[in-house]
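Let us work through a complete example step by step.
Step 1: write down the sequence.
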Amino acid sequence: MSKNIKEEKGIKTSKIVVNAILLLLIFFLGSRLFIRIYFNEFYYKTPNLVGLSLEEAKKTISRSALNIREMGEIYSDLPYGTVAVQEPEEGEIVKRHRNIKIWVSKDEPSVFLDDLIGMNYLDATAILEKNGMSVQEVKRIKSELPISQVIATSPKSGEPVSKGQKFVFLVSNGLE
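Step 2: predict the structure and record it as tokens.
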């Protein structure tokens, strides 16, 4: 009988040791998982979204644990409605649930022209054509200014204008 009691004590002791080891293992692994989740230690490489449409970019991001944040529009040489800029850039390592900021391309690449007012009409027209624009209409008025001098333009000088835009000129006809 004493042999059975010793065996039972040995079994109980080994069960206690195994249970203690299992509890320590579960505690250790659980705490590592908790720390990793709590401190957001899951890392992802940012995908390239530049050149994708907004819908394609959202679809690409939906497959990962990252988010998109639309920041607005920007003039770009890329087609209208596509992602022109992203931050952080492609290939950077970021934590889970990080926002990827994107700016979408505006309608057309824009140009800022020099002030055309005060120039000769032919010189102003040459500048427009050089930048991919044209003259839609020329209105002439009687003025003390020299003949063919540009008095005003529409759109106004200093505003961003798209390539292919048409201008309206108000030009001096002299005192006649």
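Step 3: interpret the result. The mean pLDDT is 84.
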